[in-house]
Amino acid sequence: MTTKRVPCPKELNQESGRGLLDSVRQQGIARGEELILDFSETETMDSRGGAWLLKIADLVRSKHGEFRFESHHGRVAEFMELIKPGLEGGLEEKPRSPGFVERVGDHGINFVSEARDFLDLYVDAIYWTFVGPFEGRKFRWGLFVDEVHEMGVRAIGINCLMNFLLGMIIAMLSAAQLRLYGADIYVASLVVIAFFRELAAVMTAVVVSARTGAAIAAELATMEVQEEIDALRGMGLNVAQFLVAPKVLALLLAMPCLVVLGMVSGILGGAAWGIPVLGHRSDVWFRQTLDWADLGDFFQGMLKSVIFAFTIVLVGCHNGLRVKGGSRGVGLMTTRAVVMDIFFLIVIDMIFAAIFYYAWD
What we know:
Layout: E1 3-7, E2 11-12, H1 14-27, E3 34-38, E4 44-45, H2 47-62, E5 66-70, H3 74-88, H4 100-131, H5 141-151, H6 156-178, H7 186-225, H8 228-234, H9 239-274, H10 282-292, H11 295-321, H12 327-359
Parallel strand pairs: 1-3, 2-4, 3-5
Helix pairs in contact: 1-2, 2-3, 4-9, 4-11, 5-9, 6-7, 6-9, 7-9, 7-10, 7-11, 7-12, 9-11, 11-12
């Protein structure tokens, strides 16, 4: 290994430090070469001069060389001791990006951990909602009433409007096809079957997930960020009993009612198009509707509404309680809760479709 010795100026400051760096660059540092700075003539040194020394050390290390200094004395030696860790430090290694197997393993561990947390929340919600109150455990009936008003009563308007408009859309699209065969009266049949079995429950669930699911996630996430959840645990209160159970019971009560209103609104939306536009008499239209209204289809929609309600509450609570960070984390978890809600609603609906396709008849 070759060695190169460079003398330092008498006063090492901003100007002389820049000149020293330029001198080292002009002389050139070969790969693996050793550079020695001689401080035997240096009497004074300030912080700016020390900063230039750090740049010289980084330059040498970038060439994978060695950097040393000697003959420093007096106040210069005291200052050199302060910046010695920076002068002797090695090159920072860039963090190695994880490989494919590591990424898969990391995602797998996170998935298992989150699934375990969700299962714990599911069990706690079941117990504190349906078992605990009958064992004399306290239930927050006041919060339950407030949640019913917030989740159910205040959602009636938007839910009825969305289902009414959807009923008109279904009537328009189906009439365009059925009228080619002179069978547009069966639009009434199609609308009632669609809303009883499928559309009222799904549309209502989407509205509730975007409205109530997001609100639940944001509420609990904000409490978690502000350490209110930790305060509840510190007071010996169970979070599922205190916060989750009233929300579960409230939406389990409100959701079927909203779905029934959605069914009625969707049927009226179809009639609002079928009677004046298709030219059918109202008594004929509604008689056709009643003839095709089946209790089995109705109960299928009701069963979906109950499962959808339980899913929306648990997903919202789960994401709210897992928030990390500040206000940005609250926003991310709220968005994640809505996305997860809609995903699970589609998956559950697909399972229902498969079950009733193969087993209903």
